[in-house]
């Protein structure tokens, strides 16, 4: 199957997947299980769907993390891009630049690197950033806590993310999750961490576990 055929299969016809233009910031748009069930999503989740379906059809596609609008591209080329949010329409690099300037303003420079392929971990990171923003706008500390918990597992994550998620879990009454997050930070502590800091984490985790009784 060709890349265009994959796009047509997924994003045209009565059972097509569509961009959720009416409720763009619903968290369900970022959950792949809900995207599959509702056949609605946002650019990045529809792109993940397209990449995976293309892979099963023998076509290698990649995520393109253009600011403001995620796309997919044909691996190994710099001219074949597709917009899953817009019915899988094929788009050129020049059209991508024009779209970017419409969103960011004509004075904002467009970098060619915006059309570079990105690895899966960066796609996941951008999805979690979207969910973090939704949780903050909704003032939902429980949702924000688990989003930060996932982000804290990234290889380049700082301990601050784990601390923040532990505090949010505690404030929402999820004491076991808060204790487990602090204990995880203890296990990750390197030789440069002061013994007093480790003792404080262990003490806080014990107090949280005591609240479960």
Would you mind describing this structure in some detail?
With 213 residues, this protein is of the alpha+beta class. It folds into two domains: 3-118, no CATH class; 141-210. It has helices at 3-11, 32-38, 43-56, 93-104, 120-138, 141-151, 159-171, 175-188, 195-210; strands at 18-19, 40-41, 61-64, 71-74, 81-83, 89-91, 117-118. The strands form two sheets. It has a five-stranded antiparallel β-sheet with strand order 6-5-4-3-7. Helix 6 packs antiparallel against helix 7, helix 7 (159-171) runs antiparallel to helix 8 and helix 8 packs antiparallel against helix 9 (195-210). The radius of gyration is 21 Å and the shape is elongated. The termini are far apart. The mean pLDDT is 91.
Describe the structure using short key phrases.
213 residues; alpha+beta; 2 domains; two-stranded parallel sheet; 9% strand; elongated
The residue-averaged pLDDT reads 91
Q: Indicate the overall shape.
A: elongated
Q: Using DSSP, what is the number of strands?
A: 7
Task: Report the order of strands and helices.
Answer: HEHEHEEEEHEHHHHH
Largest sheet: 5 strands, antiparallel
> How does the helix and strand content classify structurally?
alpha+beta
Low-pLDDT ranges:
none
Order of strands in the sheet with most strands: 6-5-4-3-7
Give a nutshell description of this structure.
The protein is an alpha+beta fold. It has helices at residues 3-11, 32-38, 43-56, 93-104, 120-138, 141-151, 159-171, 175-188, 195-210, and strands spanning 18-19, 40-41, 61-64, 71-74, 81-83, 89-91, 117-118.
């Amino acid at each position: 199957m060709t890349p265009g055929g994959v796009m047509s299969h997924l994003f045209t016809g009565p059972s097509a997947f569509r961009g959720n233009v009416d409720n763009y910031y619903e968290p369900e748009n970022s959950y792949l299980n809900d995207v599959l069930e509702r056949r609605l999503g946002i650019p990045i989740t529809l792109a993940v769907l397209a990449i995976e379906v293309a892979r099963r059809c023998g076509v290698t596609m990649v995520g393109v993390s253009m600011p403001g609008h995620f796309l997919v591209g044909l691996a190994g080329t710099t001219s074949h891009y597709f917009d899953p949010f817009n019915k899988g329409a094929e788009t050129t690099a020049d059209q991508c630049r024009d779209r970017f300037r419409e969103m960011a303003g004509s004075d904002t420079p467009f970098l060619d690197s915006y059309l570079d392929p990105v690895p899966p971990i960066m796609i996941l990171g951008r999805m979690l950033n979207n969910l973090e923003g939704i949780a903050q706008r909704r003032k939902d500390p429980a949702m924000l806590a688990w989003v930060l918990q996932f982000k804290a597992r990234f290889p380049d994550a700082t301990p601050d993310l784990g601390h923040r998620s532990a505090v949010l879990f505690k404030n929402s009454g999820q004491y076991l999750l808060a204790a487990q997050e602090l204990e995880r930070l203890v296990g990750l502590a390197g030789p440069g961490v002061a013994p007093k800091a480790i003792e404080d984490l262990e003490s806080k985790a014990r107090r949280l576990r005591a609240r479960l009784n």
